[in-house]
Amino acid sequence: MARRESAVAGPGSRALVVDLIRSAGPISRVELVEATGLTQPTISNIVRRLIDDGVVRETGATVATGGKPRTLLVINSRSAYGVGIRVGADTLTCVVTDTRGGTIGRELVSAPPAEKPEDVVAQLASLYRDVTQGLGLSPQSVAGLAVVGPGPVDVARGRFLALPGLERWADLELGQALTAQLGVPVLVDSDAAAAAVGEFWGRQVSRERTFGCLYMNSGIGSGVVLDGALHRGASSNAGEIGHVSVVRDGARCRCGSRGCLELYAAPAALVDRARAIPNLANRLKIRPDDPDARAFDVLARAAIYGDGQARALVDESALLLADGAMTLANLWDLDTLVLAGPGFAVAGSLYVSEIRRRLAERAFSRKIHVVQVDLSSNPRDSAAIGGAALVLQGSVAPGHGPQVAATHA
Fold this sequence. Notes:
Blueprint: H1 13-24, E1 27-28, H2 29-36, H3 40-52, E2 56-63, E3 70-75, E4 81-87, E5 91-97, E6 103-110, H4 117-134, E7 142-149, E8 153-154, E9 159-160, H5 174-182, E10 186-190, H6 191-202, E11 211-216, E12 220-226, E13 229-230, H7 261-265, H8 267-276, H9 280-284, H10 292-304, H11 308-332, E14 336-340, H12 348-362, E15 372-375, H13 382-396
Parallel strand pairs: 4-7, 7-10, 11-14, 14-15
Antiparallel strand pairs: 1-3, 2-3, 4-5, 5-6, 8-9, 11-12, 12-13
Helix pairs in contact: 1-3, 2-3, 4-5, 6-13, 8-10, 10-11, 11-12
């Protein structure tokens, strides 16, 4: 009797196989059959195409099983490269990663406010060319570019709707303009969503885990990866945990609501409060013209080194973030939660400790399983790295998100 094919033998089967090789490799074809429920001929065909495309390679190592030795498969790290650019209030961060998520290049540049929409496009295109050419990458080896920043984002039209400093250019279809200039596929997405995919991809997390990422920069966002794919929502703006109200009838937020989490726990809010405390800003040498990002780093460092007033501010933020983390964990029954973003770069350990404590004490499923809480290994660059992961995932594992044209060398 013929074996019935599993439901995953449809368009997502390539993505499934790539995910398993990425997270569990080196792995044999027989193990892929056992893990996926797909038939041996189906696995053989998918693996053959992946090898032909250069996405997967045989290691040369074999496993003796008493029968025919099994050849092992791994992701070919040089199959393609992804480029991610994070747009900040006054900086651009460009990161290039290989197919396994390893960073091979990075550049941080200042980004003065652009006077015209074409200036924005020119700045980003110039940075992309400088970095890829400096690394000696051929155009054919680059899977694409993702430009990421604070939401909301119109992913379908490739534009930011409320990017700090660029609000006047909300109608600029950035993805289309950059594709025309660079000749590579370009995605525009939120920094929190990108960070979630980047952490999932780079950590080689199994698709069987329900994976969450809490992202803090100028605002607070999150992303959840289910079955290897980012949960996007109706308009690809899911996960805006920073706009959950935590103070009834609180301050009005730019989103239109009141009492939003990021108004009380995000770096800008803490910097404002630090400046309002007599002598604290002067004592910590936070200057009036310091950008919020730099001022928060100074505040967070003081908290780490035992300054009582600074520590009290960061602790209060951590308590509120722990509430947000518990909401995420309870809604999605998370296995893993990673903290990413520049806001966690200095005092991330304080936030991790508080969130671990809160989830261990109050998470709904705590008596069934522990939620693993970790800090990103590279909080500042996590969104840019995630942007690169977005285009790589869409290229080598189509079916998990926006598909980009394959450009393998």
